[in-house]
Design a protein that fits this description.
The chain is α/β, with parallel strands linked by helices and about 300 residues long. It has one domain: Aldolase class I (TIM Barrel, Alpha-Beta Barrel). Helix content is about 35%, strand content about 20%. The strands form 3 sheets. Strands 2-3-4-5-6-7-9 form a 7-stranded parallel beta sheet, sandwiched between helices. Helix 7 runs parallel beside helix 9. It is globular. The protein binds iron/sulfur cluster (SF4). The site of iron/sulfur cluster has 12 residues, from loops.
C-alpha cells in the first residue's frame, strides 16, 4: 500500500465510508453577486462566463442528468461506489430554490453527501440551517469557501469584492453549526510574493478549517487576466515555483486538514497559459518528489487507499 505525506481526500472518504467515494461536479444554474452587479460586475479577473465550472446548465443538462452521467462515468473510471454532489459553478448559496436544487442532486442512495461551493459573503443563518438539515438526515455536508488570498491588496486587484474579514465571519458562523469548511486558495495571484502566499497558508493553519483546495492561477480565454497576460503585466508561476510553494504550505497545515486539491484543472480548450497546468499528473509527481527530497510531510504519513 502506497504512503502519502499529506491527508488526501480519498483517504478521508475511505475512513468515513469504507469505500471509494467521488465528487460529481455540478452546474446548477446559479449566478454570482460579483457578476450580477450586487457586489461587482465582470467577476474575478480570472473567471470566465462559465463561472469556474462545467457550463452544463447552459447546455440544458438538468442536475439529475449531470448526477447520473457523473456517477456512471466515475463509477466506471475509478470504481467509485458512493458519490458527493458537488455544487461547483458560480456561487451555490446565492439565489432562490436552493433546497429544490440540492434535493434534486440526491438521485439515489449512492449519493451520500453535498459539497457546496460559494463565496464568504453568500452565507447566512438560513443557509447554514438548511445545510444542517441535510446533515441531520445523515448526509455528509461540506461548505467550500473561496478565499483565494488573505491579502487586501490582492483581493482588490483580482476584483473579488469581499474581504478576509467576510471570510472569518462566515467561517465562524458555519463552524458554530458544525458544518465542515474547505477553503479554496490560489497561488500565483498577480503581485504576490512567495512570503505572502505562505502567509495565507499559515493564517489558515491557525484557524479551524477542515479542508483546503490549492489552485495555481492560470490564464483562461476571455478574461481580464488574459488581457493582462497579453500586455506582459502578468507572469504565471513556473511549475517548479508552484511545487515549491505547495510543499512549504502543506507542511504548515495541521495533520488532520484534508487536502482536497493540490493543483488547478483547466479545460484544455480554454487555457491560454501556463501550459504546464495541463500536466496535473506531472505536478503531483513533482510535489511527491520534493516532499521526499526535503523529507517534509504534513504531520504524519497516510495510507493511499
Ligand atoms: S466569485 Fe467565483 S463565480 Fe463569482 S466571479 Fe469570482 S470566480 Fe467567478
Amino acid at each position: 500500500m502506497e504512503l502519502k505525506r499529506y491527508r488526501t481526500l480519498n483517504s478521508y472518504f475511505k475512513e468515513k465510508f469504507g469505500c471509494r467515494v467521488h465528487k460529481v461536479a455540478l452546474d446548477a444554474g446559479f449566478t454570482c453577486p460579483n457578476r450580477d452587479g450586487t457586489k461587482g460586475i465582470g467577476g474575478c479577473i480570472y473567471c470566465n462566463f462559465a463561472g469556474s465550472g462545467t457550463g452544463a446548465y447552459k447546455k440544458s443538462i438538468s442536475i439529475t442528468e449531470q448526477m447520473k452521467e457523473g456517477m456512471n462515468y466515475l463509477g466506471k473510471r475509478f470504481k467509485a461506489e458512493k458519490f458527493i454532489a458537488y455544487f461547483q459553478s458560480f456561487s451555490n448559496t446565492y439565489g432562490r430554490d436552493l433546497k429544490e436544487k440540492y434535493d434534486e442532486s440526491l438521485v439515489d442512495k449512492r449519493v451520500v453527501g453535498l459539497s457546496i461551493g460559494t463565496r464568504p459573503d453568500c452565507i447566512n443563518d438560513d443557509i447554514i440551517d438548511l445545510l444542517v438539515n441535510y446533515q441531520n438526515k445523515g448526509y455528509m455536508v461540506w461548505l467550500e469557501m473561496g478565499l483565494q488570498s488573505i491579502h487586501k491588496r490582492t483581493l482588490e486587484f483580482i476584483n473579488r469584492h469581499h474581504s478576509c474579514e467576510d471570510f472569518l465571519f462566515a467561517l465562524r458562523k458555519t463552524k458554530e453549526k458544525g458544518i465542515p469548511v474547505c477553503v479554496h486558495i490560489i497561488f500565483g495571484l498577480p503581485g504576490e510574493s512567495f512570503e505572502e502566499m505562505i502567509e495565507t497558508a499559515t493564517f489558515l493553519a491557525h484557524l479551524s478549517i477542515d479542508g483546503i483546495k490549492f489552485h495555481n492561477l492560470y490564464v483562461i480565454k476571455e478574461t481580464p487576466l488574459e488581457n493582462l497576460w497579453k500586455e506582459g503585466k502578468y507572469r504565471p508561476l513556473e511549475q517548479e515555483e508552484y511545487v515549491n510553494i505547495i510543499c512549504e504550505a502543506l507542511i504548515r497545515l495541521p495533520e488532520d486538514t484534508v487536502i482536497q486539491r493540490l493543483t488547478g484543472d483547466p479545460a484544455k480548450n480554454e487555457l491560454v497559459a501556463p501550459h504546464w497546468s495541463l500536466d496535473k499528473k506531472g505536478t503531483l509527481q513533482l510535489i511527491e518528489e520534493l516532499l521526499l527530497k526535503k523529507n517534509l510531510w504534513q504531520g504524519k504519513f497516510y495510507f493511499k487507499p
